[in-house]
Write a structure and sequence with these properties.
6-stranded parallel beta sheet; 7-stranded mixed beta sheet; single chain; 2 domains; 11 helices; Quinone Oxidoreductase, Chain A, domain 1; binds zinc ion; Rossmann fold; alpha/beta; 341 residues
């Protein structure tokens, strides 16, 4: 089978021919039809997450396909079933798994991180990872659900606990953020969107943002105050999470508001103004992917037309390096997806 392998940091992925994997007991092997390319894949390829991956390995965690082989002791999945992978592999036993927070399981493994992922013709995974799907959503749109859509859903519904009528500021409306705009609107929020990419703000408006601004061309804090009658936003979803954004995204909160960090700078720490957090009772919460149940809910919302997964383009497996270059240039809106023939 063909795989695209990360062999060295800051070097292009390399095409390799490998043996097709066999499923162990409790596992399935999926024939991959589509795999999204995520900003995290870029962070990994540049060595910024070298503490969690071991090279050489195969990235790719937004995986869609059909079941090619089924291991022993599997119920309810058979060869030819189509579906999508929940790419977090929780232990199922620890206190976090038991209380419904499997996405932060103490001994989590992930497809496309600790385990080989979907930049490949076939991928091996536990049966639990497979979410069967036979509906009408196209493969390239389906592939962006496990991360680009479900992460935004978890951040807004669970971590921000958004209520109808609240004002939400979405910082960064790229691969994840354009879905956050849609989900916040769907849940009854007034949405403000901020981005520096050409065309991003028009697209955010198309998907329901009430107000938009480019933080490079206006004072971002003033812009937020202008469109919230001077009060600030109830919720900020920061998809960037660098010192550059947090210096204004956190103070954009209303008193008692909640900032959810979805994006993160993996290397550099950020400055937080403690008096502001204390005085205004701001909450700062992390958000990490989603639970499997939330992914299943997202599939239903997309199926019913309430969320539109935004895919910029579809390219072949061997063109993955060009896709990563486009993400590096930072001009894309919506996901780039690999189609694997
Ligand atoms: Zn990702
Ligand atoms: Zn666990």
């Amino acid at each position: 089978m063909r795989v695209m392998v990360l062999k060295e940091y800051n070097k292009p992925l390399v095409l390799e021919e490998r043996e097709k994997p066999e499923p162990a007991e409790g596992e399935v092997v999926m024939k991959v039809s589509h795999c999204g390319i995520c900003g995290t894949d870029l962070k990994i390829s540049t060595g910024k997450l070298s503490s969690i991956v071991t090279i050489p390995y195969v990235p790719g965690h937004e995986i869609v396909g059909s079941i090619d082989a089924v291991g022993k002791n599997i119920r309810g999945i058979k060869e030819g079933d189509t579906g999508i992978a929940y790419f977090y592999i929780p232990c199922g036993e620890c206190e976090l798994c038991r209380n419904g927070s499997e996405n932060v399981c103490y001994s989590i493994e992930r497809l496309g991180f600790e385990r080989d992922g979907g930049f490949s013709e076939y991928v091996r995974m536990p049966a639990y990872s497979f979410c069967g799907y036979t509906g009408k959503i196209a493969g390239e749109k389906l592939s962006v659900l496990p991360d680009a859509v479900a992460t935004s859903y978890h951040a807004i519904k669970n971590r921000a606990a958004l209520r109808i009528g609240q004002t939400v500021l979405i910082v960064g409306t790229g691969g994840l953020g354009i879905h956050a705009v849609q989900i916040a609107g769907l849940m009854g929020a007034e949405v403000i969107a901020a981005d520096i990419k050409p065309g991003a703000l028009d697209m955010a408006k198309t998907y329901g943002a009430r107000d938009t601004f480019d933080p490079d061309s206006v004072d971002p804090l003033e812009a937020v105050m202008d469109c919230t009658s001077g009060k600030g936003a109830d919720i900020v979803i920061d998809n960037v999470g660098t010192d550059d954004t947090l210096r204004w995204s956190l103070p954009s909160l209303k008193r008692g508001g909640t900032l959810v960090m979805v994006g993160y700078d993996p290397v550099n720490p950020v400055n937080v103004y403690p008096l502001g957090v204390h005085y205004n009772e701001w909450s700062i919460r992390g958000a990490r992917v989603s639970t499997k149940q939330e992914l299943l809910e997202v599939i239903d919302l997309v199926e019913s037309g309430m969320i539109d997964p935004v895919v910029k383009k579809v390219i072949p497996l061997e063109a993955v390096n060009e896709g990563l270059d486009e993400i590096r240039e930072g001009k894309h809106i919506g996901r780039i997806v690999l189609k694997i023939e």
